[in-house]
Amino acid sequence: MKNTNKKGTVSVRYLTTAAIIAALYVVFTGLSAALGLASGVIQVRISEALAVLTYFTPAAVPGVTVGCLLANLLTGAPLPDIIFGTLASFLGVWGGYFLRKHKYLIALPTVLSNAVIIPLVLQYAYGVPDAFWYLMLTVGIGELLSAGILGGILLHVLQKRKLFR
Predict the structure, then answer these.
(1) pLDDT tens digits, one per residue of 34-72
(2) What span, in angstroms and rounded, lies between the C-alpha atoms of 63 and 43?
(3) pLDDT, tens digit, for every residue of 118-158?
(4) Is 52 a domain residue?
(5) What does the alpha-carbon distance between residue 110 and residue 68 come to, in Å, rounded to a whole number?
(6) Minimal CB count within 10 Å: which of 11, 19, 74, 125?
(7) Contact 39, 86 (CB under 8 A)
(8) 30 with 21: CB under 8 angstroms?
(9) H helix count then E strand count, the chain
(10) What's the CATH code of the domain at 38?
């Protein structure tokens, strides 16, 4: 996908795709929050499955990043979570973008960045007293479920249906 037009500015298609991905991220995070899964020691954000969209379009990098920022703002997360949670998502999708040629590894950066950064957020922003390694395990498992398994299913369905071109 060409990201810029003839004038060198970002294309409308790229911006629209990023905006749709951001909106989907917010909606799916809201759904996860309604189910009690969006935050805490054990979290499975359904929205993290969207990280695999970097396989199809680079617009997923700003889309997921902005979506995470908006979702954290709208769910009332404390400032460290807004900043570092968004950073974790950005690093994950950015890393996934560079692994897009290896579709089965595309969710790995998202799982790893969240498994390392979010436990620190939980300890320092929310005062969770659990051990870092325990939090790393619980957040990592949640990310493996959402970005790895749900994301893998999403990737397979989108690729099979050829919805991205």
Answers:
(1) 998 888 888 899 999 999 999 999 999 999 999 999 999
(2) 21
(3) 999 999 999 999 999 999 999 999 999 999 999 999 999 99
(4) yes
(5) 12
(6) 74
(7) no
(8) no
(9) 6, 0
(10) 1.10.1760
